[in-house]
Amino acid sequence: MARYYHHETVQMHGTNDDIRSNVRRGLAITTASNYRPERSMPPPSAIAFGPSQRGRSSSSSSIAGKKRLSSQIGAALPPSKRFYSASPTKASGDAISNRVHRRVILCDYGKPIYKAGSRLAFFAALEGCIEGHESLHKAGLLHRDISINNLLINEDGNNPSWPSFLIDLDLAVRKRRKCPSGAKGKTGTRAFMAIGALFGKQHSFMHDLELFFWVLFWICVHYDGPDKSRVVPEFDQWNYISMELLAKEKKGQVSYERDFIKSAEDNFTPHYQPLIPWVNRLRKAVFPNGGRWEKEEIGLYARMREIIGEARRDPKVSA
User: Fold this and answer.
1) How far apart are CA 139 and CA 87, in angstroms?
2) For residues 174 and 144, is the Cβ–Cβ distance under 8 A?
3) Beta strands per DSSP E along 69-221
């Protein structure tokens, strides 16, 4: 994980910067003719994706640009992050939520993992991020938003940051949190969400480990090295199709080994073709017998790291 340095509540003219006091400045929005209470709003899954938004992480200038829809010309990134919850906690009565502007400064900075300078560096960074996630799990936290922009790599020998690390705990929760909006619901960046999470299952560290697989798969399809990306309509639709359909699409990708290998051979970029046998081995570890996991297994961390470690010793990967 990126190391903490400082945090603060941003102030404007000597007062905390928030929606209720600083933006609305006491405006009674409940008296507006078009006011709709939160409980009458459409469910998050029914809200269309809007224009791209500026990335929220301040840990790296290289990822501070806009997150674009993958359907946009020349873009290969998933859409802006959305928070999905099948069981959100509602404020009692007519209470209106208040958002407070806070700032977190981190010690470490790097670039997104898909900008890795080589396949070997990419796999080393992925292994390091999985190890970092395991440390989070041991500390009692679920990240819940593993994505291509939240896994960072540092290949600069003069940069004292970690070689690789996770960022963005915006959607993280404590594993034993009792609040119904805690670990249950549809949460994360849509294109990478685990199949079980898409069905609204209780979120587990096993779902997060599945997210690592989908990040790997996405990068192998969309990036031909550190500086070349492409649009692949078949997979870019994962950004906007319904969650139920996306779950079926993903199940179809991983269910049968021959079909998966054929899809990888057809869709992985030339740069990542040598990774196909190793991505397939990870598929078999994450999806036992081609299906979703039935019970939590802490040993999956070690198995995934072991497979990646073997891949790093493969001459075809390091070539």
Assistant:
1) 25
2) no
3) 102-106, 111-112, 141-142, 151-153, 164-166, 173-174
Q: What is the pTM of this model?
A: 0.77
Give the total number of structural domains in the chain.
1
Quick: pLDDT tens for 20-51.
888 988 888 888 888 777 554 444 444 333 33
Using a 10 angstrom Cβ sphere, with 0-12 exposed, 13-18 middle and 19 or more buried, the burial of residue 143 is buried
pLDDT for 157-190, tens place per residue? 888 898 999 998 888 898 765 443 334 557 788 9
Q: Which two three-digit tokens encode residue 272?
A: 């990542």
77 located within any domain: yes
Q: Determine the structural domain holding residue 314 and report its residue range.
A: 4-9+61-96+109-318
**Cα–Cα distance measured from residue 319 to residue 302, given in angstroms and rounded to the nearest whole number:** 25
> Phi and psi at residue 299, in whole multiples of 5°?
-65, -10
Half-sphere exposure of residue 148: CA atoms within 13 angstroms, side-chain side: 28
